Amino acid sequence: MIYLVQYFFIFLLIVFTSIIRSKIKIKIDLLSFSKKTNHIDYILFASLILSIFSVHLSTSGLLVDANRYVWNFLYRYPSYNEEMIFSSGTEGGFLILNQIIYYFTNNSDWLFFLVAIFVNFFSIYVLTKMNSNIVLVLLLYLGSSYFIYSTFLLRQIIAVTIINLAFLAYLQSKKAICGILSFIAILFHTTAIIILPFYFLVAKTKSMKNYVYSIIFIILIFLTVQGFFDNVIQSIDYLDRFIETESSFDGSILAPLKGIPFYILSLFSLLNRDKLLKRNSFADFYILSSIIYSICWLLTFEMYWAFRLGLYFLIPTLALIPLSISIINNKKERLVMYAFLIIFIGTLTFRQLVNLFIQ
After folding, report:
1. pLDDT tens string 318-347
2. Fewest 10 Å CB contacts: which of 93, 183, 194, 320?
């Protein structure tokens, strides 16, 4: 029954936004992705489908983490009062969100649905702002495994989505909004704190020489991240409650293979940086995001959890794909590159889905 209510809810939302667009002459930024085309209806529809799928997967009983979220939503979080928000072992933003939803309904399906609709809608929204080709954006988004994380990484994927909106504000030179959103993201998942040095790197990386320094700096950060979490974060009150380092850094020899398409993308983009800057003045932002995301996958051989840190840079990395391929003059070569990246990324996503169901 809840799924019928969800379909009806989104249907009304689509109708409502369509009426607003047709009646109000002043265009709201959220409803106007470009001067020529609005994609809000398509994004709402795609978000609905993905969110319904996410709810079915989350409530299937196959995902251990999802089951924990259900138990916490029903029995743990409702018992916390205001004084326990920042001493509960759960980030305050996520705890408050659970309590608000529980106030209206104790059906945990709504928690997964609302998180999924938020994640999918605003992630596709940001991608569409970064690249106006809605078909290509949806293919890349579906090909990636991003939307799957809304089924069992609820706290972090909310933080990642908020960071994506912060990135968008940064690209629009809205630094205050960017800072506020970055802070809010940390309230949902403490790992979002790694975004703070990223803004510094983007501001300083303006030449190939600086790229070399930035890459070395990033690698050093990730190679020392366990010690940083153990010795620094664990010593800070409040933050120490949310970082578990004992079991988070087991590596996998085969895991770095999943980053192959992004290694290629990062290298190609870096070698063609000058051409990309002529196409987009923020090319360095996208290239650096892709490099960090690639390094995260590369370092999964040492610490498996590194790929989750890389999630903060996945959306800008996906936006770099059409930008990079656009500088290839030969149409056949462009099609081959698109096919390779989409099929390769999609195959990895399919494999991850299979692994989820097997487990």
Report:
1. 999 888 888 888 888 788 777 777 777 777
2. 183
